[in-house]
Design brief:
single chain; about 160 residues; alpha+beta; Ribosomal Protein S5, domain 2; four-stranded mixed sheet; 4 helices; 4 strands
């Protein structure tokens, strides 16, 4: 047996990069209503291989407790049939899920994010997909911070005293 080939007990992963944890269920968007809320009320970020929709969730919502959820980020994926047969769509989802899983630590706070990948994700270098996800999370985090700051500032009155 060739000793240079990795066996089942050996890892071919890069030892310099520690493997991040799993993609927990609490970090996923699962309900249609949650996706719909992000599409209707959220913002968009466009990049070469994907479109990212995002919405900052309220911390506590008595009207829609399933929407408010936990305080952490939640991520969902939509891969329409137009992107190809099921084999291709599943591969796109696996690649996107892995890129998000590796970079989920960049996202903080109650934010819902939906990724709409393009067909180019199927053939793009994984490093490029991962870089786009990282950039998208940075933009989402920055815009969420700006929205929170703008919301907390008092609105100045436009009336003038006579």
């Amino acid at each position: 047996m060739n000793s240079s080939a990795p066996g089942p007990e050996q890892s071919i992963a890069d030892p310099a990069r520690p493997k991040p944890g799993p993609f927990p269920r609490s970090a996923r968007l699962l309900k249609h209503a949650s996706f719909d809320q992000v599409y209707r009320n959220g913002q968009k970020h466009f990049s070469g291989n994907m479109t990212v929709f995002f919405l900052r969730r309220p911390l506590v919502s008595k009207a829609a407790p399933e929407f408010a959820g936990e305080g952490g980020p939640r991520v969902g994926f939509t891969v329409p049939r137009a992107l190809g047969p099921a084999v291709d769509r599943n591969r796109i989802k696996r690649r996107m899920r892995e890129a998000v899983r590796r970079n989920l630590g960049h996202l903080h706070g109650p934010i819902d994010v939906v990724f709409n990948p393009k067909k180019t994700v199927l053939t793009a270098e994984f490093e490029n997909i991962e870089a786009e996800v990282t950039r998208a999370f940075t933009v989402v985090q920055q815009k969420a911070r700006e929205a929170r700051a703008a919301k907390s500032q008092p609105v100045s009155s436009t009336r003038q005293a006579h």
